[in-house]
Amino acid sequence: MRRLPALIVVLALAAGLAPGFGQAQDSIAVSPPSLSRDEMEAFLLRARVTKKRGAPKGITGTVRATLSDGNLTHDASIQTVDEARLHHPTPRGFEINFRDTWRYNVAAYKLDKLLDLRMIPATVERSYRGKKASFTWWVDDVLMDEGRRLETRTSPPDSGRWNEQMWIVRVFDQLIYNVDRNLGNLLIDKDWRFWMIDHTRAFRRHKTLLDASNLTRCPHSLLERLRALNADVLKKEMRGYLDGDEVEALLARRDLIVTHFERAGPAALYDPSPRRP
Questions:
Q1: Helix or strand or coil: residue 247?
Q2: Nearest Cα to 118, choosing from 35, 194, 187?
Q3: pLDDT per residue over 23-59, tens digit each?
Q4: How far apart are CA 255 and CA 30, in angstroms?
Q5: pTM
Q6: Mapping DSSP to helix (H, G, I), strand (E, B) and coil, where does residue 6 land?
Q7: From the DSSP assignment, how many helices (H) and strands (E) are in the chain?
Q8: Residue 211 CB coordination number (10 Å)
């Protein structure tokens, strides 16, 4: 079969025409009116589920649901997974005190808000079919995920801005000790913004970093917000989502990240390009 020229592939992606790419692979994504995060949260909490189907990717029983409040209709990702095991096999060996829970999706979003990253879609706690669950705003206008981008060898239009986003993702994943970051849960929208989704296997209780070599650079503003995190704020914001040991471990990793960049010096810090909400 004859391959399309690379330029045509990129143009097709930009127009949202290429099938099978990323989160919106089974439909054409249509952006709703511009909403604040508070408005998205309110919608996720009150809107009625009108349709549901399995999400195209993932292994945690994710449901893609269409919600409507009578004025706005939009999709959400619903996860009810809540498992804990003393030992669990992973590609890296057995994990002790394994946890896979929707609660970490809410915790990750709350932490994103505290750090003002705006890289995790709005997420709330809500009941679904008699179980507690996380409801996450379905990201609009998704071009592809990072796995598909690498597979198609598609280059971002602005490599500098792209690297800035990737550096933030790496800092965040070290902070939350995310053992399940993969190329399928990094989404790329039509404006070439990264969206981090699916954090049900993060927030481990380790007080070390998962891989300090991933800490390459960090925005000045993010470093300052990391310094400002404290136990009182985290315990208040994360009540019901992280326990005391998980908060203590998060703060220990925060200290290691801050120390790392303080030692790295000014060359490791930068001012990121503005990110539209």
A1: helix
A2: 194
A3: 544 433 455 668 999 999 999 999 999 999 876 655 5
A4: 41
A5: 0.86
A6: helix
A7: 8, 12
A8: 10
